[in-house]
Amino acid sequence: MPMAPLPMAPLPMAPLPMARLSQLGQSTRLDATSGLATLNTPLLDALSAHPLTVALPLARLLATSPDRLQVVEGLALAQRLAMANRRQPNAVLNTQLNSLFMATSRFHRTPDPLIQVYLAGFYRYLSGKAAYGPLLELFWQNAQTPDTVRRQWPYNPNEEIGGSMLEHVAGRVTRQLLGQLSPKTPLPLEPEV
């Protein structure tokens, strides 16, 4: 006598990573000599695995956090979310990335070179023109900073800022050139991001 299949019990949902967002910056270390930050990579991996769940709470955290290292690690997470959206576009995540962009607007005039580097890294992967203006403003601000101050920085944030600006310009030029091609012209391969 055949048995009827047993009804499947719903699988338990994975715990939401919200509580882990508060851990951003707690294990981040800043090397006093090189000025380089060592991020909590396992935490970033775990959080970036849930982009749709993490993006809006991350925006709230970045809009309010006074902790420099929490902001830096939050911007690193924002960059990972933007990279994931570029690889596999998602309309919901794109809207949430716009919220993240608005939350990071408070850093558009920051004098902190570490925050500038991670902000430029996040803006590099945002689609659209909105990020170019703040990048240009940071670049100009750093160019106006006296040499005596810039010599104290462990590295030059304008390298990352300039690279992000070039990425935006190259993307725009590529789109314009592709728009001029006939439909029969084979498209070049997209560069790996």
Task: Summarize the structure in words.
By secondary structure, the chain is an all-alpha fold. The protein has one domain (39-180). The protein has 9 helices and 2 strands; from the N terminus they run αββαααααααα. Strands 1-2 form a two-stranded antiparallel sheet. Helix 4 (68-87) packs antiparallel against helix 5, helix 6 (113-124) packs parallel to helix 9 (157-180) and helix 7 (132-144) packs antiparallel against helix 9. The radius of gyration is 20 Å and the shape is globular.
Brief digest:
With 193 residues, the chain is an all-alpha fold.
Q: Secondary-structure blueprint of this entry?
A:
Layout: H1 18-21, E1 29-30, E2 37-38, H2 41-48, H3 51-64, H4 68-87, H5 91-103, H6 113-124, H7 132-144, H8 147-150, H9 157-180
Helix pairs in contact: 3-4, 3-5, 4-5, 4-6, 6-9, 7-9
Short descriptors:
globular; 193 residues; two-stranded antiparallel sheet; single chain; mainly alpha; 58% helix
Count of strand segments: 2
Strand content: under 5%
Q: Please identify the structural class as seen in this structure.
A: mainly alpha
Number of helical elements: 9
Q: Give the proportion of residues in helices.
A: 55-70%
Question: Which radius of gyration do the C-alpha atoms yield?
Answer: 20 Å
